[in-house]
Amino acid sequence: MTTEEAASSRSSYKNHLEAQLLAMDGFVPNAGMLGGQWSTMVWPGSAEGLESQKLQTGVDVGLLRDIGMASVRVPVDFVSIASPGAAGS
User: What one-character DSSP code corresponds to residue 53?
Assistant: First the structure.
């Protein structure tokens, strides 16, 4: 492949990518997988989502809060390789 052919190939591919990028402006994704059993799902921050937060789950709110906090708590003995003084630094 000559230098000119390589440049032409790159230019052609770049033009193709630019055309695909411009086509994205009108792209609307198909969220078909959110139908059926998921059709009643709503965005949590929407008016419907905020209203649905008033629903009763049958589980104590304090217990749910504790579970949520425990799910993101970093264990006391956790050692991060990024922290100063960690093993191996």
Answer: T
**Cα separations in angstroms, 66 against 20, 44, 52, 78:** 47, 20, 21, 20
For the entire predicted model, the pTM comes to 0.35
Contact between 13 and 23 under an 8 Å Cβ cutoff? The reply is no
H helices then E strands: how many in the chain? 3, 0
The per-residue pLDDT for range 48-82, each reduced to its tens digit, is: 877 766 767 789 989 999 999 999 998 888 877 76
The type of residue at 36 is G
Distance CA 36, CA 27 (A): 23
**Tens-digit pLDDT profile for residues 3-37:** 999 999 999 999 999 999 999 888 887 777 777 88
